[in-house]
Fold:
Amino acid sequence: MERLYSYIYLILALGFCLETNAQTEKADTLLKTETPSRMVITESPDGTRITVTGYGEEGYEASVLSEYPSESSVSSRQMTLGGGMLGLIADKDERCGSGSNWEAVVDGICIGLDKATGLGNCRGMQWSKSFEIGWLNCIGVAYSFGPSSVSLGVGFDWRNYKTTFSDRCLVVTPEKGIDWGSVKEGDNVRFSRLKIFSLQLPLLYRLRIPKTSLNLKVGPIFNFNTYGSLKTSYYDSNGNKWEDFTKDINQRIFTVDFFGSMSLCNAVGIYVRYSPMKVMNASDGLNFRPLTIGVGFGI
Structure:
């Protein structure tokens, strides 16, 4: 009986070893790459081909084909994944035969603080209370070459320049500019706010730093400032709340900003934006050049 138990234990142990070996068997490596940046999956009647492009020191492209059985029935399509905030990238332009890559890109949201520069020693807009919210590229196109690309897109931007001085406020000048104005005795100003909305066309150069996840972007942004308004909120001597609002101001219709950013994995980064052109078109009153420093998501 003991010998029978020994045979049973031996058979169970052998079965366990075979099962463990089958479960731990490593799969074959079909494709191994370093610093990959783009993957293209192409389905055809022959099978599925995976092509990976990388931006190393010299750049490379590797592919592998997984063939379908002869009796399979498949459809054919091509898709490219990668790049931009939402990963919207067009197929390669193979008709030209140049190997160039055209991409449809969507860049991210920018949130920053606005500083009014060029006012000298005059107390001006308050940087800590003035902010910018923008979408750098709602949609755009990019041409890629090696680790670099150049893109042109369409986006929009809101800039709010704010003051919270209790004894003065912003008013409209005769030439529809802005300037400081006094308040009536007993009135208490809550805030004055200048708002500018822009339709923007960013023309940006992007560089993927080799062997890192860092991306640099620099270039001009062409702004069509289609909307401007001035608003002041205050309390009178009786404690009643009042607001003065007007859109009848003369903001500069076209301006150019210089943009620069550094991001990690196209996910989050910091940016700086500066315009050498003044905000208002009027020759009188208060005028300044905007400087923005902030955080970008998906840039």
